[in-house]
Amino acid sequence: MKKLRILPLVAAFAIFGSIHTLASDLKVIANPSVKADAISASELRSVFLEETRSLSDGSHVEPVLSKSGVAHQAFLKQYLGKNDDGLQNFYRTLVFTGTGAMPKVLGSDVDVIHYVAKTRGAIGYVSIDAPLEGVKILMIVQARPNAERKLVTHVDPEYPETLQRLQIGGTVCLMLTISPKGSVDGVSLLGGNPILAESAIRAVKQWIYAPGPSRATAEVCIPFGNKR
Asked: Would you say 172 and 192 are in contact if contact means Cβ atoms under 8 Å apart?
């Protein structure tokens, strides 16, 4: 029965790309307020590393960590590429620099499920056999388009004068949601300097792609500085 419930979702993704479901010993769960039924591996990483607070469909999300366990270790290894010490040091740096906060950390699957069920936008992970109540499961996918949507109208982002003067550059990576008509309907930050990201997001919202049969997503990376 579970396979039958996910078939419509797989079919929707297959319209614009092949789907590779990322299997693991865990389930990613979300509060029902989250509109998405699936999340890409890159989005999941960005949410838990606090590079973005929203998904490509515009849903606001709040990451919730488990304290320990098989699911916790699998999640760190497969999606974050960090061990416990590395992740804690990462969050301490965010807190120290004022660029982020320590996420909610809970001690058991039951605690995670209870918190996610009652907290709008919450997203977490639990063991594959954990009984779920009041939450939704997000399928984790890696979309690989068979044919990319052609970019018709491109607008360059403004490079903030102050950052230019200080020679602060870098690359901003974004996840775009493209409408069938070709307009960019949604943008979420996958990584990069938040100040540069504001300029990049303003620019890509003006981009126009070639029309297509359905909504599509695209990951784009925009460099700032070090241009020759």
From this structure: yes
Write out pLDDT tens, residues 112-166: 999 999 999 999 999 988 888 899 988 776 554 445 778 899 999 998 888 888 8
Q: Go through the domains of the chain in sequence order and give each one's CATH number.
A: 15-143 (3.40.190.10), 147-224 (3.30.2420.10)
What string of DSSP letters covers the chain?
-HHHHHHHHHHHHHTTSEEEE---SEEEEE-TT---SEEEHHHHHHHHTTS-SB-TTS-B-EEEEESSSHHHHHHIIIII---HHHHHHHHHHHHHHTS--PPEEESSHHHHHHHHHHSTTEEEEEETT----S-EEEEEEEEE-SSPPPEEE--PPP--HHHHHTT--EEEEEEEEE-TTSBEEEEEEEES-HHHHHHHHHHHTT-EE---SS-EEEEEEEEES---
pTM above 0.70, yes or no: no
